[in-house]
Amino acid sequence: MITQSVIKNGLTYRQNKEGDGYPITRIETISDEKIDPTRVGFVNNLKEEELREYRLIVGDILFSHINSLEHIGKTAIYEAVPEVLLHGMNLLLLRPNKQKIEPYFLLYLLRLYRTVGIFKNMAKKAVNQASINQTELKRVRISLPPLEEQQKIAQVLMSIDKAIEAVDEAIAKAERIKKGLMQELLTKGIGHREFKGVKLTLIDTEIPENWEIVKLRDIITDLKSGFASGKRDENGILQLRMDSIDLNGRINPNAGVKVPIPKNVEEYLLKPGDILFNNTNSVDLIGKTAIFRGEFARCVYSNHLTRIRVNPEKTIPEWLLYVMIRYWQLGIFKAICHQHVHQAGINSKDLLNLKIPLPPLEEQQKIAEILSKWDEVIEMKKAKKDKLERMKKKVMELLLTGKVRVK
């Protein structure tokens, strides 16, 4: 790689997190492939020459050369935010020669190389991390179009990135609106004027006069944990696991595994409307809840999940889903779980004793429909983002390899 004017390691001074001194980069600073000013360390008592030597300038690229294999080769470009930022340890600084290469062109090229596995293949592997030294990185050869073409390629890719950022902001806004609606509708309901004070599980609140407080055991017909399977069988049955559930009540169809079909498989088959509750996970993720909508013809679930079937005469599955998601947001499951060394668990007894508000069925349905509409909006926007990201990946491959030239 002959296009950089500087490639070097960062300052190795001891860092603090108290905001004492100048902000300095850490590995976490670029974990999302952009510089996050909230995830920096701080150093003080620097000499003037050290401040000059390690201060980032606009267009500098930070390269993660010591990291887990999954994250090796992540990059971010400095755009003067924060105004003063020092180059810290465990990240390489690449300062492009702007007479030969456009910094954003190099940034996107490095990201393409990471996407196709170049950095993963060249890294030296250790037990929990991988590394790429400067000598190896300098040997990476790249093809350079004329500088003007580089700039135009960078502009095309930056415009796609801006479109993705706009969709991200729209998703975040929709999620904030939905969260606010959940907070209001799941305790205040629709059109009520009279309320009563109640105590739910770890929550003191008010609910409409005609709502009930019930335990989970009062509104379900079945609660059953899944089965463990350490084996794989491509001709077997799809088993959903803890990673199959996202934080928005959706099931990720790509996160399951095929396992041998157990003799008592009928006991574990999911039906549309079944609620899946994550009973074992890290303390911050325990209690994730999703609803199975028949995404797969035949599907079972692991012992890290508990299946809940509601009594249709008392509640609808969507109502329970949104209550459980709200409880997770409030940290209820984190508070009642049993913590172990690396994970936490919630047993069936504690789950069955969970106290929840219960409106009349008709009102449950109306509230669920309102929240479901916002789920649809969020999913639509996420699908748009996925489409843009696929387009960006294809455009990067075409433009950065010269298969398509930009005039």
Task: Describe this protein's structure.
Helices cover 33% and strands 20% of the residues. With 407 residues, the chain is of the alpha+beta class. The strands form 8 sheets. Strands 1-7-4-6 form a 4-stranded antiparallel sheet, with helices on one face. The protein has a 4-stranded antiparallel sheet with strand order 13-20-16-18, covered by helices on one side. The longest helix has 42 residues, at 147-188. The mean pLDDT is 94.
Offer a few descriptive terms.
407 residues, alpha+beta, four-stranded antiparallel beta sheet, elongated
Q: Helical region count?
A: 9
Give a short account of the largest sheet. Answer: 4 strands, antiparallel
Poorly predicted tracts of residues = none
Overall body shape: elongated
N- to C-terminal distance: 25 Å
Radius of gyration: 26 Å
Helix content: 25-40%
Number of strands: 23
Hey, roughly how much beta strand do the residues contain? 15-25%
Structural class: alpha+beta
* Rounded average pLDDT: 94
Strand order within the widest sheet? 1-7-4-6
The gist of it:
This protein has 407 residues and is α+β, with helices and mostly antiparallel strands. It has helices at residues 48-54, 103-115, 118-122, 134-138, 147-188, 317-329, 332-336, 348-352, 361-400, and strands at 4-8, 22-24, 41-43, 61-63, 66-67, 75-77, 92-96, 124-125, 130-131, 195-200, 203-208, 212-215, 220-225, 237-240, 257-259, 275-278, 280-281, 289-291, 299-301, 305-310, 338-339, 344-345, 355-358.
